[in-house]
Amino acid sequence: MSLFKTITDKPWEHKGIIGGLKPEGAFEAPSEKVALSVFLVVASVIFSLFTVGYFVRMELPDWQPLSEPAQLWFNTGLLIISSVLFQWARNIANTTNNKHVTAVFIGGGIFAILFIAGQLVTWNSLQGAGFYMTSNPANAFYYLMTGLHAAHLLGGLWVWSKSSIRLLAGRETSDVKLSIELCTLYWHFLLVVWLVLFAILSNT
Amino acid sequence: MAYVPLADRDHEMEMHHPHSWVGKYVWSQDHKVIAIQYGSIAVFTGIVGLALSLLFRMQLGFPDTATFIDPSFYYQAVTMHGMIMVVYLLTALFLGGFGNYLIPLMCGARDMVFPFMNMLSVWVFLVSVIILMASFFVGGGPTGGGWTLYPPQTNLAGTPGHDMGIVLMLISLGVFIVATTMGGLNYVVTVLQYRCRGLTMMRLPLSVWGIFVATILALFAFPALLVAAIMMLFDILAGTSFFMPAIIESGTPLDHNGGSPILFQHLFWFFGHPEVYIVALPAFGLVSDVLSVHARKNIFGYRMMVWAIIAIGGLSFIVWAHHMYVSGMHPYFGFFFATTTLIIAVPTALKVYNWVLTLWEGDIRLNAPMYFAIGFIFTFIHGGITGLFLGNVVVDLPLSDTYFVVAHFHMVMGVSPVLVVFAAIYHWYPKMSGRMFHSGMAKLHFWCTFLGTYAIYLPMHYLGFLGVPRRYYALGTTDFIPQSAQDLNTTITIAALFVGASQLLFFINIIWSLRYGPKADPNPWGAASLEWHTPDTPPKHGNWGNSLPTVYRWAYDYSVPGAHEDFIPQSTPETEEPTVDEQHFDPDQDESLANA
Questions:
Q1: Other beta carbons within 10 Å of B577
Q2: How would you label B369-395 residue by residue, b for 16+ Cβ within 10 Å and e otherwise?
Q3: C-alpha distances in angstroms, B477 versus B63, B484, B486, B589?
Q4: B208, B210, B211, B216: CA torsion to nearest 10
């Protein structure tokens, strides 16, 4: 669909069925994928606004930069592995040789759980070192933004667990293929969000 | 697997027709039932908002007559009135109510794309309303910090509801945003993916365009409110200092340090200004359809109307700081935001001209919905023009926080959308209920509401020019508030009580007609759009019987020269179009042909 062509159409001039008997779908994609894409834009707005808030608040005099623990690099590695496994699952789900898809897909989710556990460990070590949420806005933003990211991941894991149960129950891969694809898209999105957040947090 | 559009998979779709009463009317996944649930909850909340406004108007018109209206209650009533009307009434009613009812019907779909999520949306909305209402019953009562909830004032001991009231308000808003997002994803994807055969985007009625673009605005603007609400909750509950500066409360320094209240204002208005258009754009769309149908003319400049909706939607994201001129900003920012604000007047004025030109030489039928639609043009021009005053920094500074602002935004986003709500309810009532309402009573309702609201808000402009500040519990005696201003306030309160009471005409009419109204014709106004051509009135679950409709034309083929009737339904193929030779057709001279 060319957007320009669409909105410059003169509907009063054309009668009949435009484009033959094809029903109108703006995108040649399943509705679930369109909905997820719109949601990802909404989630991007949320993360962007937190980031804007972060930069605005950073300019004020009481800001003391937080030096992020090195463990975040390890956690980032876990999330990358998770995303790679999801991509792998999605790729083999589209082929005939898909007997490993269940294992790979479930593995992707497990690495995401490990990532969240890793984030919790980081939180604990920061708390132990006296970096409380209330002691400085930089700390508060750290907890808030990593927490929000983890909350989004938990939402994804809920869908992942439902799809995993369906796979383990022996459902055909073709029934779960769309779920796998959407999970993959969502995981990649959250990986990108994390990389951006990580870059901002560790460079300020 | 190749992509197959939904309308091509209609034969595969299973409709789960519930048989129990609970399945049909409570846990229903039918968009029409959900629309009525959404609308009813919103209207109920709106009645609470209306009652609150009458109470605080009592204090302004007849100071200290009602002893229970103390300053705390006054501020709580003003705050809750504002938030309820903007968010829980208008947003929910336009998107959840009209959006749910009209989108699938006007798109020729059987339902929304995700009916379960749609059902979830309305129940989550109900939870948000319950949380909001709960704040009336907690210690300290609801928040009284003004509907803008500005910190630090909202969170300090001097403000009513600073303990639990504000917390419940923020949680309720968060839950509301979840509900709106679930609903919004549905509306957007349904419009994009679920249209029937032949229904291109540019053949959609403007109602769908208005609701569609408003939904996109809601999806992108509400996150700003969510972000602000989350950060403020952390400030209140966890003791962080996102927004709270170092401050002394009743002689005691608080633990907060260095937060930025202005940051909150930016986030709030980044949501708050698009919110105006989340309410206005559906109203623009609905009123366009009502005007066109009852003027028996195609809407003037359909493409321009669509472009204007899109342009207004886009521009609404870059004007937010015009709400913050008095907060202080760099003059260049003020210049920028004043300019963008005035630019929005261009597509908006274009829409107004097109509505008026739609009426021009139309075969106007003065049915009750048309009264409200024409009334809307008046109130909207009025409220829009005062907006141009306030958009300019130098004019805004003296008028800010006076009754001029109250008059402006009530005319433009209170009265105008509400007139459209009434127009739309009366217009679609025969389709929704299968009954006709009492026309005379509806027209009486119009005159009471239209003249009554003018009696309320026109004098407020004068109060504003005098410099009478808004949000004051008692005005006291000052040089610039003479006795005549106090008298004007009394008059306004009497008018408000009258308008409030006259809404009973509406409720009695639609409730009485549900049972005793005469049976409605399936298409009583002779409208061309799809929703009037369902096999059943009111439409049953699944809307279209055995087969989906096919669309052959736009939704505005009214008074087409040579046609049998003065409208051609969207689903009439061009081959079946009963036309005569247009070149020799003159409806004035050849009536027999016109009536053939």
A1: 16
A2: bbbbbbbbbebbbbbbebbeebbbbee
A3: 13, 12, 10, 70
A4: 120
The answer to whether B550 contacts chain A (CB < 8 Å) is: yes
DSSP sequence for B6-37: GGGGGGG-------SHHHHHTS---HHHHHHH
DSSP state of B253: E
For tokens 């999520």, the residue is: B117
- Domain count across chain A: 1
First to last CA, chain A: 42
Select from B193, B199, B303, B529 the residue whose CB has the most chain A CBs within 10 Å, as the one to mutate to test that interface: B193
CB–CB of B512/B435 below 8 Å? no
The verdict on residue A25 lying in a domain is no
Which amino acid, one-letter code, is at A37?
Answer: S
Put simply, the answer to whether B113 touches A10 (Cβ < 8 Å) is no
Q: Which two tokens stand for residue B486?
A: 């106090």
Q: What is the pLDDT of residues B301-359, one digit of tens each?
A: 999 999 999 999 999 999 999 999 999 889 999 999 999 999 999 999 999 999 999 99
CA distance A60 to chain B (A): 7
- Is residue B89 within 8 A of residue B539, CB to CB? The reply is no
A197: in domain: yes
* Long-range contacts, stretch B584-588, CB < 8 angstroms, 24+ apart: B585/B561, B587/B561
- The answer as to whether A13 is a domain residue is no
The domain in which residue A154 lies consists of 34-203
pTM, entire model: 0.94
Q: Complex ipTM, two decimals?
A: 0.94
